[in-house]
Design goal:
Helix content is 46%, strand content 10%. By secondary structure, it is α/β, with parallel strands linked by helices. The protein folds into 3 domains: 183 residues, Rossmann fold, CATH 3.40.50; 187 residues, 3-Layer(aba) Sandwich (Rossmann fold), CATH 3.40.50; 33 residues, no CATH class. Strand 8, helix 15 and strand 9 form a beta-alpha-beta unit. The radius of gyration is 25 Å and the shape is globular. The termini are far apart. Bound molecules: 6-O-phosphono-beta-D-fructofuranose. 6-O-phosphono-beta-D-fructofuranose binds next to loops. 6-O-phosphono-beta-D-fructofuranose (F6P) binds next to loops.
Length: 530
């Protein structure tokens, strides 16, 4: 990268940004034909369509001069070459010397290029068929009725979110449950209504070394073995992992092991066998539709010119606000109850990928990187935190997500109200209300937002939407010159939790810990009832 050219482009953007901070600037005025704006039809100019997905980014601090300046940054950061590098399978995860090839998992060409991917899909399909046809029986000969996914982070959030999002496409042949937390009440409350003889556990762990997942798997196995003998483990557990030997040691038969590869990052893994709960919920056709939608977005990201490239535009806008308007967070608000887990999924995707302060060369970054991603389903959020969006002192750009059609039976009018609320919130954030009889009632407006409108929420369109955010994250990492695919910070917490656990179990000297941690341990031990 040519650093001097890049900083010239940044300087130009810095100067350009000043006009949007002026007191007299009104975002809504950019839409009015009587301003000097050269954008005669902003919606047309600043929206992009890709199949059943529309991105309206017209309610942003941009006009005809802004986008070329942002695109300049993208060019200076060599984004096109970085996109090619990802698709070519180069080692873009530089700190772990790996490729990041989640796009291969949804590439129909993988059949010839990466036979292990299509072999894995075929094996998933065979398992789904066996379970759906009631051919997989438990230790007592009864048919499996419930599947419990034991995983955390990327081995939980994506599949759980997609299963919830696409519940109306479920085949209802099995009940699929998710247990992630090491808090024993999570597993216990899930198992309370299940029978060991009709329950299959999926241990989803890329590393097969994650404490939470292993402890839950051991507790699940104990629950099973209270009813029967150890040979039942083979009939009631399957695993998805790169660590095949550890899974075998746990008691899982080789034929029930589904491989994963180091070139699939945990938070990008729902497209692999980690997506088994999705395939079990929707059937394999639905899962393949999800992959096809994601692939379509991959092709768009790979081939569309930068100024018409949805993930690139979203990344540039995030960069714009983070760098020049000191935005600390982005709210992602799906106006669709079925997408209520999407913000949690995006938190991991974005914050684990972009929460870095050292660049790819190992130097401290001289600029802001990933912001905080948060949100809940609309309209509920309107009755809690929207007040702060409208009148608070934080500057928070919003991504609104909605679907033009509802999957609910009847309820058309209610769905129209839902959409009306979504569209009117972006309008209210933009326009505000200046003519009020008291300062308390003034709503400043000038708050930017994007709206992503799906024709309907179905497997294909959801695949597109998720791949869109994945590629936005990668594009941002390129603009910020950071590695989106490692997460070394998370490791420290894991190491310290074993040290603290050792001190709590009197296996290590608690005096080695700081006073606060010692005090907390003592008080918790003092209050412990057992
Ligand atoms: O929390 C860190 C992390 O490594 C995530 O990146 C990952 O998705 C999660 O833990 C679970 O890891 P695994 O699939 O190896 O159990």
């Amino acid at each position: 990268m040519d650093a001097s050219r890049n900083s010239a482009a940044k300087l130009a953007l810095q100067e350009h940004s000043e006009q949007f901070r002026r007191k007299e600037f009104r975002l809504s005025a950019l839409f009015s034909p009587d301003t000097n704006s050269t954008d005669t039809n902003r919606f047309q100019e600043y929206s992009l369509n890709h199949e059943g997905l529309l991105l309206d980014y017209s309610k942003n601090f941009i006009h005809s001069e802004t986008i070329p300046l942002l695109l300049d940054i993208a060019e200076q950061s060599q984004l096109p070459a970085a996109i090619d590098a990802m698709f070519r399978g180069e080692e873009i995860n530089t700190t772990e010397q790996r490729a990041a090839l989640h796009v291969t998992l949804r590439d129909p060409e993988a059949k010839t290029n990466t036979p292990e991917v299509s072999a894995s899909l075929d094996r998933m399909e065979a398992l789904v068929t066996e379970l759906h046809d009631g051919k997989w029986t438990g230790y007592s000969g009864k048919v499996i009725t419930d599947v419990v996914n034991l995983g955390i982070g990327g081995s939980d959030l994506g599949p759980a979110m997609v299963c919830e999002a696409l519940a109306s496409f479920a085949t209802h042949k099995l009940c699929v449950h998710f247990v992630s937390n090491i808090d024993p009440s999570h597993l216990q409350s899930t198992l309370k209504d299940l029978q060991p003889e009709t329950t299959l556990f999926v241990i989803a762990s890329k590393s097969f070394s994650t404490l939470e997942t292993l402890k839950n798997a051991e507790a699940a196995r104990d629950w099973l073995l209270q009813q029967t003998d150890a040979t039942a483990t083979a009939k009631h557990f399957v695993a998805i992992t790169t660590n095949l030997s550890a899974a075998t040691e746990f008691g899982i038969e080789e034929k029930n092991l589904y491989p994963l590869w180091d070139w699939v990052g945990g938070r990008f893994s729902l497209w692999s066998a980690i997506g088994l709960p999705i395939a079990l919920t929707l059937g394999m056709d639905g899962f393949r539709q999800l992959l096809a939608g994601a692939h379509s977005m991959d092709e768009h990201f790979r081939t569309a010119e930068l100024k018409k490239n949805m993930p690139v535009i979203l990344a540039l806008l995030n960069f714009w606000y983070r760098e020049y308007f000191d935005a600390h967070s982005t709210a992602v608000i799906p106006y669709n109850q079925r997408l209520s887990l999407l913000p949690s999924f995006l938190q991991q995707l974005c914050m684990e990928s972009l929460g870095k302060s050292v660049d790819k060369q190992g130097a401290q970054t001289q600029h802001n990187t990933g912001d905080i991603i948060w949100g809940t389903a609309g309209t509920n959020g309107q009755h809690s935190y929207f007040q702060l969006l409208h009148q608070g002192t934080e500057f928070i750009p919003v991504d609104f997500i909605a679907s033009a059609n509802s999957d609910a039976e009847g309820g058309t009018q209610a769905h129209q109200h839902l959409l009306a609320n979504c569209f009117s919130q972006s309008l209210a954030l933009m326009e505000g209300k200046l003519d009020a009889d008291s300062a308390h009632k003034v709503v400043a407006g000038n708050k930017p937002s994007n709206t992503l409108l799906l024709e309907e929420l179905n497997p294909y369109n959801l695949g597109m939407l998720l791949a869109l955010y994945e590629h936005k994250v990668y594009a941002l990492s390129v603009l910020w010159n950071i590695n989106a695919f490692d997460q070394w910070g998370v490791e420290l917490g894991k190491e310290l939790s074993s040290e603290v656990f050792a001190a709590m179990s009197a296996e290590a000297d608690p005096d080695a810990l700081d006073e606060s941690t010692q005090g907390l341990i003592q008080k918790a031990q003092h209050w412990r009832k057992i």
